[in-house]
UniProtKB/TrEMBL annotation, chain A:
GO terms for cellular component: membrane. Residues 1-10 have a biased composition (Polar residues). Its main location: membrane. This is ALA-interacting subunit. Pfam families: CDC50.
TrEMBL record, chain B:
One of its GO terms (molecular function) is ATP binding. Residues 5-70 form the P-type ATPase N-terminal domain. It is found in: Endomembrane system; Membrane. This is Phospholipid-transporting ATPase.
Amino acid sequence: MSANGASTSDAGVPAKKESKKPKYSKFTQQELPACKPLLTPGWVIAIFMIVGVIFIPIGAVTLLASNGVVEIVHAYHNECTRNLTTREAKIAYIENDQLDKTCNVQLRVTKDMDAPVYVYYQLDNFYQNHRRYVKSRNDQQLRGDSVNETTGCKPEATYNGQPILPCGLIAWSLFNDTYVFTRGGTQGLFVNKKGISWKSDREDKFGSILPSNFPNNQRDNTSLIGGGALNLSQPLNEQEDLIVWMRTAALPTFRKLYGKIEDDLKQGDTISVQIQNNYNTYTFGGGKKLVLSTTSWLGGKNSFLGIAYLTVGILSIFLALVFFLVHLRNPRPLGDPSYLSWNRKAQLTSNSAH
Amino acid sequence: MKRFVYINDGDLSPGVYCNNKISNTKYTLLNFLPKNLWEQFSRFMNKYFLLIACLQLWPLITPVNPASTWGPLILIFAVSATKEAWDDYGRYQLDKQANERNIWVVKKGVKTRVQAQDVQVGDILWLRDKDEVPCDLVLLGTSEPGGVCFVETAAIDGETDLKTRVAPPPCIGLTSDLLHKIKGVIECPTPDKDIRRFDANMRLFPPFIDNDFCSLTINNTLLQSCFLRNTEWACGVAVYTGNETKLGLSKGLPEPKLTAVDHMIDKLTGAIFLFQIIVVIILGVAGNAWRLSESQKIWYAKYSLKSSSWYEFLVIPLRFELLCSIMIPISIKVSLDLVKSVYSKFIDWDLQMYDEKTDTPAVATNTGISEDLGQVEYILTDKTGTLTENIMAFKRCCINRICYGETTGDALADPTLLRAVHEHVPEVIKFLKVMAVCNTVVPVKSHGILLYKAQSQDEEALVQAAAFLHMRLINRTASGVDVDFLGSMLQFEILDVLEFTSDRKRMSVIVRELRSRKIKMLTKGADETILPIVHPEQQCRPVIDAVERYSQMGLRTMCVAWRDLEEEEYSRWSVKFKEASSSVTDREWKVAEVCQLIETNLELLGATAIEDKLQEGVPETIQTLRKAGINFWMLTGDKQSTAIQIARSCNFVLPEPEGQLLHVQGRTQQEVQMSLERVLRTLRMSSTEPKDIAFVIDGLALEIALKHNKEDFEELAMLSKTAICCRVTPTQKAQLVELVKRCDYRTLAIGDGGNDVRMIQAAHVGVGISGREGLQAARAADFSLGKFRFLKRLILVHGRYSYNRTAFLSQYSVYKSLLICFIQIFFSFVSGVSGTSLFNSFSLMAYNVVYTSIPVMTTVTDKDLREETVLQNPQILYFCQAGRLINPSTFAGWFGRSLYHAAVVFLVTIHVYANEKCELEEMSMVAFSGCIWLQAFVVPLEMNMFTSIQVIGIFGNLVMFYIVNFAVSMVKWGGMHTIMYRICSQPAYWFAVLLIVVIGMGPVFALKYFRFVYRPNAINVLQHFERMAELASSGTAATESPLRSLEKGSIPLSVSSPNAELGSVYEPLLCDTPSSSLKRGGVTYSTDFIPSSPSTFTLSPYSRFKKN
């Protein structure tokens, strides 16, 4: 009866066909050893507890670090426009080259500030991250690889038909307010402007080339007024104000380093600052602030991290407690018979409801 | 349309037909690039990506370097083009090999050796044993007597048995010298792809004139790619060549199947696209408004005073379009293709789906549709060879009112039958003669043993049984049959063969007994086709009863009949038959008509019953799959009572009173309609009861129902979970698949034979059993298995895991793209809505292609539940069937998560990096690191277990992120120069990242925990029990085995039932899809959960698993 079956299997044997049996390996059989964590109450409560226990100290430390930073912020954009009130007047004032823009400001040191004290200028409502602005530069040119390369610099690529060096809107809109500090009325405070930019920028991003054909240096009445002029006899990689400025900010409110005061400032000191209020923030209603700040291991004054860490830590412990209480009142360990009976009951009720 | 082939006469048809150059290649060297690109761009997603990439070439609007899109795009295109080119080159090589083969061809009367590609239509080809046939030939002569030769047709239909082919009668007996000179004409249809039909005529020219026309059938042909076997030589004339052969025409790729998940992904992609457009419009308007009001104020941006070009208003929207273009991730397609091919590899590799006996591993031919396996709702299965072994054994027979084998259970062991044979009882002899002669079995002598080569397992069983009863078929040629009966030789001349077709369901052979010169017609066939043509005066009752009884035992029955023909009657009929069988059009139908004329007034001899054993594990498999909520339909060509019997033994239908069988029957439209309505009424009434109702319908009633009562039948199909359709044709099988598909169900068709191919191709998922009926079904199928029982594992393990994995991967892919996109959108609000990108091009590209693709791809090794648990609780498949893991609400969850995470990353970053720290490049990397760190927690949270691969993939990726970025930070001219070193040395960076991770993950984690413990879904509950079993097995209570604890755990099987109720309240992300709740069948699901006896319910599959 099975002659045919036998013959086919016989025919198969002498041919010695390679078996098509798949090779065994843990991967091919999907049997790799694995750990299978389950979200059991114990684990989850522990994790939230641990997060809380870690976060609260971090929050405290960072908050302390932030509070340890002494910061003097002084907005001078209104004060330094000779008390002009309307926007138009302010614009007219700032755009007038003939007027003296000097303005004196008094700062009181409320707490001891240990050296170095960083001097920042803060701009508000200034979109350095604007699509038109942020790309308007040419890194090749800045590096000095090819000084005539101005791709991407529009609309500030050429001036009088010649390529601008450094080209682009960013360089052209260089911030040009200046500050001169004196302590107690007479004693000059030296502001160190060396080393305020990134070392890597000075060494690799900006070449040792002299600026040329820079429109702000050859100001005439036909061109729109830009920002500050450059020192035409100083190579770009030494013009640190420019280097700092060209590190564009990600937010419309930003601070940039102006310099460092390498003296301790004592509580009660009065610092007078002579400001050259040159930079036009009035057309777009932006603010200008002068900031003196010490620094901590975490950076400047910023209580966000501390508060956030404390809040999250507390919430986390709170959640852990809630889960713990819920677990106590309504325990559902794995395989608890009551769990089964709950199911059974629910099953019964749902059945009878049918 | 007809084609005339002039044999051996190249001058009469020069160059009309193509030469024999085979070309399977899709491309040529010239058209490769355009054709391949055109094909790739015919997909919506690719078009979209190309549009984006082109827009990016416009420097004014591009927020990022165009390379960040062009790079991956070109890579993807290059990879898929290279793959195509490589495949095509392989095909080209094979073609070349085939085309340059040397073939003996007679050209102008001279035998020469030419390359296969130079063969022309009309050439005479000479083939030797084991040669491959280079083109479609009409056989002219062979070395064997009677013009017979044997071919192996495996390359065409996958059937490995030898088939006989004969030269047409006029050519038989010609010597090879004459064959060199033979001339003639063959009238044949234009090339088609039907490999079972060749309706042609041949006429030989003088001096070979024999008679006018000689009809040709497929039995006179040698088709391309067959192999000549057991024949010294054969020669034939080329009729179809090159790509016009039957094989050449039947090649071609079937329509690609798309899975339900794919459709869902497409829909979601479409929704995202819409969302993207809306975002772009809103941001575009806002951006233009901002520009109009601010542009003259922000002097540093130096907007020109003059009104600018016309497209000015488009610039900002287009910039945002580009910024948001990553919402539809370019990586999703690549990752999906990748993981899908891994799923299919897992199927290929699975040792538990490997059949030792036949050395058949499971094969996933279609690598793209594994997820659909997990969503199957209807399985339409063939019976013979699929549910059964297809190993036929002759068990009983009924000859002349005497039933043999009643006591012994095996007719061959029944001494009364053996005695009857030895006593030459005339009815018994006649019966045995029909068994031995009326078939197409070829006896082959090998090493002195007589073997039977049969295309039908039933015929083989009958011939074997006849041989056992001393009626031994020993030789068969085209013209005659030799049978040895108790030492005496009976010789029959075969006059005509009235072939078996699935419509006729019977076969007759008209023979002349050489000794008595009498003409007889021997007929066998299904009872309902034989009984109506039996001589009206004959008493059929005993046979009918016997057939009824046999089929109730699940045996396959066949009626055997006989008719003595008068010489005159036969010759009159013979003319008509010849005419019909030489017609070129509608031959099959015409032949059937003519056959009916002579197949009348038969003498019914009796009935045979053949047993076909159920395959191992079939009832358990069906029970498990039915528990998984899958409905079974059995479509068989077998008769109703056999089908019902098999259905009962397969657990298709429970015995009364749980189960109920409803019959839809009738011969006329009214009868069928009434019957249908009655069944429907019963079904509607009992739809609330947990009763197992199946309907039974036969081919005829089905045809009527499908034609006239389609709506009723569709309702019936939806209400009834089980159906038994018997006596159905291959076309009806495919029609039924289409019907179920139209009701919006996912269908799986499984079968083993050529008659299942259409159904397999029509279904969403086609599964072929590589069985004894050949490999045809397995070839056409998306998956092929060695045995039916592997289907359980294929669906529950592979299908389910694939679905789960794809659901996670696709939604995650969209989530991570949305995340980065939302951050960009938030950033645009602090950058003057001008469309600045926060992230640099390199990071954006690497984010999609590397950092977020690699970790999630390790989901291919993830399993939510152990395989045993799933096999034990098949109900869990409901989650996949209802599409609970990927649907608009789960997607909304991911969408919300991406929005929340984007807000966390953005807000934390801008607050920590405020004031003096807010340098663009630095802040960008801080936010970016935040995203990457979040991913290192989002991915593990969604995974269920951690193998070494996952740990390496997820955390190795994080390490790689730093290595890559440190490397990039070393590049002096890059925008990222020193950035990574700077930020990594700042404590604030690490605090920010930690804060992002904890704020981002905390609520997600807490919510997941709450759901898992207090609002668990069925998967979670089973996870609990898995853990319980593990604890029990590893704990101190060594006596309590995991098996026992799982047994206890079997009670919450029913847990999904309350959950289904709670679902809408507590599981907003897991509620049923609208489509699933629309289905009337799906709702009654929960009642299935109540196990009739819990212990057998779970224990038996588990212990069975252990055995495996």
